[in-house]
Structure of Bifunctional chorismate mutase/prephenate dehydratase:
Amino acid sequence: MTDLNALRDQIDALDQQLQDLLNKRADLAHQVAEVKRAEDPEPVFYRPEREAQVLRRIKERNAGPIGAEEMARLFREVMSVCLALEQPMRVAFLGPEGTFTQQAAIKHFGHAVESVPLGAIDEVFREVESGAVHFGVVPVENSTEGMVNHTLDSFMNSDLKICGEVELRIHHHLLSGPHTRRDKVTRIYSHQQTLAQCRQWLDAHMPAVERVAVSSNAEAARRLRDEWNAMAIAGDMACELYNLDKVQVNIEDRPDNTTRFLIIGRQDTPPSGHDKTSLLVSGKNRPGLLSDLLRPFREKDINLTRLESRPSRIANWSYVFFVDCEGHKEDPALTEVLDALDSDGTTIKVLGSYPKAVL
Ligand SMILES: O=C(O)C(=O)C[C@]1(C(=O)O)C=C[C@@H](O)C=C1
């Protein structure tokens, strides 16, 4: 058997090589930045389509024993650091610190970005529009609770582009604070969506305790710092941030509870090879509007991944449809669908074409 020291010597030698290679990679990213600056007076450093391609290839060719997901996450961090050398990035998210949206921002961009907490979804939109931050991250749908209407509504009045999506498995924990007297708990704080996602568990285990909806799970966790008769429901990040104790883990009613987040920016994203497109479609209310709207997708064999209607807010009982489909708006089949809808008197706004979530 090889002895421990000999194995550690081999690890040291490999670490040296890895370190040299990582620095060489960073050097190349630096050169890429120079080329971008030389070619464009307003260079775009963050390239979601390229990052998606790199991460997909890493997963495909991975031979183990490190799992493909873990390997991709390591490279996610490597690219995050390389991008920060090209340009330090500021990414706004629906705060405060410790929300699932912050977790989604870090999952998507890696730890080398500066994440900026904001108090409301429309503030995230405004800060990206004004250029105060490079990108924003907002929740859009949850597998148990459905759509986040604030986000959908914000798109109606915004020219921002969706340039990415993130999916996050959401686990909620029942938490207690430093002063909590567990036998005297009379209320539980959490965001209203979280309370809804844990409704059955709460009905079964804490039916008599008042449920108090607050602005975010992180705010719920924060309140436990100086209360003795309350508990909170929140995720790992908020739990760690406020140094709370887990009384019961994973109390969400559905074990596959997932939230989808969108990355919003000011630029269009070129095709990556595996893309999605989000559209906002409206037409004059008439019989058959929805089926007319869907027909071109059927004819071109384009898969719809989501269809949602929202009041248009222009007239009572008139609606807009949010449509997500597979493909990029530059794909010939999808271009034809968009042309067909356009000539049918339908108003279409392309909210963005972007790579399907890789991580
Ligand atoms: O290929 C580029 O355009 C780069 O800037 C390099 C790189 C990378 O590290 O691989 C870094 C940032 C971009 O978002 C995409 C990729």
Remarks:
- Residues 29, 32, 45-47, 50-51, 54, 79, 82-83, 86 surround prephenic acid (CB under 6 Å).
- The first helix runs from residue 4 to 39.
- The first strand starts at residue 90 and ends at 94.
